[in-house]
Known about the structure:
Layout: H1 3-24, H2 26-50, H3 57-75, H4 83-100, H5 107-125, H6 127-132, E1 140-143, E2 146-149, H7 150-176, H8 191-217, E3 219-220, H9 223-251, H10 266-287, E4 289-290
Helix pairs in contact: 1-2, 1-7, 2-3, 2-5, 3-5, 4-5, 5-10, 7-8, 7-9, 8-9, 9-10
Amino acid sequence: MSELTRRIAFGVVAAPIALAIVLAGGPALAGLLAVASAIAAWEFFRIARSAGHAPLQDVGCALAGLLPLAVHARFLHLWEPRLSYFAVVLLLLFTVSIWMRGAAGRPLGAVATTVLGVLYTGGLLSFGYAIRYHDYAVGGARLGPVTIAAGGVLLGLPLLLTWATDIGAFFVGRSVGGPKLIPAVSPGKTVSGAIGGVVASVLVTWGYVHFALRPAAQLALSPAGVLVFGVVVSVAAQLGDLVESLLKREAGVKDSSTLLPGHGGVLDRLDSLFFVLPVAHLLLGWLLIPAPR
């Protein structure tokens, strides 16, 4: 099969499963984020090793996978995060580096790279769970015999905008061309494509708010809120993509791995979401309003 065929086939299978888990939430969503975080961390550490670093891979992957589960436990009121817990984890990483690295194994770089990988993957993806259970996302809407939770609809907004930005940037960039955006980091991206991604994001934000968020979640964004949210989330998505391109360029690798047919690795597919999810969580706290009746 061609690469495009493999990408389409994988998307046809994976997209409905991911959508069902997003709408279901709870342990299923926490588990999906945990697995994605652990794999993305493994790929991040793979890139780091290619760039000459020596992260504590096994410990880092485990911590990245545990972070979404810890957020899930927090929302179940099973524990309360404290700064001292994170300080102890940092101390444990230094302790592990004594036995696994020693002075000759560059322990400072090993710990720093490990912490960055854990926070970049598991830490940022955990905001997906926080959006799913946002304080404003209460209740839901009936669709036949099924109730669609408001939180699932809310999480769908940044996910859809990430996809819209990618599609808009691809097609406008191909059609219009023009000056390169940052050729030293990603030679294929153009200024016109970046603008096309932003426009697509704003248009999709408007449509999603009116036809999904209002009726299903009883939430809305003002006209100014639609513009701000669409623009900022699109910029965040494109920055996330560029950051991963920068990391891979430093390491001299094309893809983070070959786990996903036609898509490269998990990190390649989720790079934009690492930036989008925390930014969207922050903006939603500022911009969400009850839907006018």
